[in-house]
Each structure stands twice: as C-alpha cells, then as structure tokens.
Amino acid sequence: MTVTFTAAHRPAVGYVASCGCPEATERAPRYGDYQDALAAADRATASQTRAPLPGCGLPDICPEYPLHAEEVDPNGTVPWVEFSNANAVGVLEALALPFRTGSADGACDALEDGLPLEADGAGTVIPIAVVDSYGELSADDFRGRVLTALGLAPDDPGRPDVQLGRTLLFGRSAGYLQRRLRELHALADWCAAHGRDVAWH
User: Fold this and answer.
1) Contacts for 147 with CB less than 8 Å, ≥ 6 apart
2) pLDDT, tens digit, for every residue of 120-158?
C-alpha cells in the first residue's frame, strides 16, 4: 500500500490504449470516448501477435501484459511521487499533513524503533504499516510546507532492511527524507507552473 502525491485531477481531453509507459501513452492514438479506448485495449490484448507499443520503456516484455484504457491529462504526463506506507509516515509528519494509521498496535512506530516486535503470547509480530491520508493544497502552500520540512527536519539516518523468516521489510537509505522532499518540491513547482493544486491519496 502506498501514499501518492500528484497534481489534482482535471477532466481528460481524450483516452488512449496504453501499457502505461509515459512516452507510449503520449504517442498512442487518441480516442474521444473511454469505451472506444477500452475496446482498442481489449482487441490489442487479445491479439496473439501484439508488438511493443512505440515508445514503450520495456519493449521486451510489453507484449506479455494487457493494455489499459487511460485518460489523457490536459497537461500531458503528470509527475507523481509515491511512498510506501512505512516511509509515508515520516514524510507526512515532516509536512505537518494529517494522517491516520490503521494499526492500533504501533506498527509504524515499531518500524522506527526496531524489530522484531514481541507481543504477549503471540511470539514475533511482523508490523504492517497501514496509512490513511488524502487531501489537496495549493501548489504554493504545499511548496511552503516542503521548504519548511527541508529546513527543520533532521538528517535522516535511514533504516536497515529487516528479515523475519521469509518476510523482508525494506529499510531506507541515509538521507532518504531529504531526497524525497526535494522530489516533492519539484512536483510543487510543476503544479504551480500549470495552475494545479497538489493532491495526495
């Protein structure tokens, strides 16, 4: 599960049948109706000889996966920044944005405090971070929060990977928070340049 920051939605100016790669989506034929794009995607997926889409970033495996009908945004390819739930908590806290965690057992805290987490009578507990956060802010307000976080957040020391049996909980590298905040700053700049709010979900 993830938390994604991107530009606030605007009505589509068309639809395409695409593999999802940005350049392939930009180069794909446009349809005025979603159902037409969906039918084109279904026909291409059903074909036994589908070639990679022009502009696909993974042409060796593109034909093995189904195409999907996708909206065409009025501003073209919209940037986005995605976080795993485990890493989203620190980012949301740094930005002073509201969120709820869906685990009353402190799973997100356990990821920061060290593992394994022991529970009475249950042995080792593998914490799964569940984060619920969504909202929308003007690009200027969001950029201000990012700049404040960059100025105030302590250097992120990172967190090592943790393996519990066959389960691997990925850590994060040192400086992760600062690096990802700079990505959010670039997103805010893009949104401001295109007159869009920043949304997250």
Assistant:
1) 185
2) 555 555 556 678 889 999 999 999 999 999 999 888 999
Phi-psi region of 78 (alpha: psi -120 to 50; beta: other; left: phi over 0): beta
CA distance 109 to 173: 18
Give the H or E element holding residue 100: strand 100-101
Euclidean distance between CA atoms 60 and 53, whole angstroms: 11
State the DSSP string of 56-87: -S-TTTGGGS--EEEEE-TTSSPPEEEEEHHH
pTM of the model: 0.81
DSSP codes of every residue in 10-35: ---SEEEEE-S-HHHHHHSPPBSSHH
